[in-house]
Amino acid sequence: MFKEFVETKHYSFHEGFADWRDAIRAACAPLLADGTIEKEYPEIIIEKVEELGPYIVIAPNICIPHAERGRGVNGTAMCFMKTEKPVSFDPDDPDKDARIFVVLAATDDEVHLSNLMALSETLSDEDIVAKVLAAKTPEDLLQIEA
Known about the structure:
Blueprint: H1 2-7, E1 11-14, H2 20-33, H3 40-52, E2 57-59, E3 61-63, E4 77-88, E5 97-105, H4 109-123, H5 126-134, H6 138-142
Parallel strand pairs: 1-4, 3-5
Antiparallel strand pairs: 2-3, 4-5
Helix pairs in contact: 2-3
């Protein structure tokens, strides 16, 4: 999985973001750059989080930004972003802070579910999460076996 992020250039590393909305936009940027998504896709994700709350933060430090299949999406892909400083989605709940972001974009429900399941399985491994949190370069990502 991490090798694929590096090979497709679907990754980025950042110090941090004062606003979670900026973090979502930055996490989506590599997918926007290669045409996988349209510029409205991050805005659709932001609207959903504003409407439903930070449902995309699935565990402390882990955020999976995504929106409905197809809207603003031209292809199916995942994109990785890591921040050094936690991004707060709810100032009253530190469990809703995230440093690992994996954007899901999908045109196909079956592939989307498959990607989501693989991602959930990988990020449920505490050792892998610790290595991801320590990663600072694409080379570090390549050393992580999922």
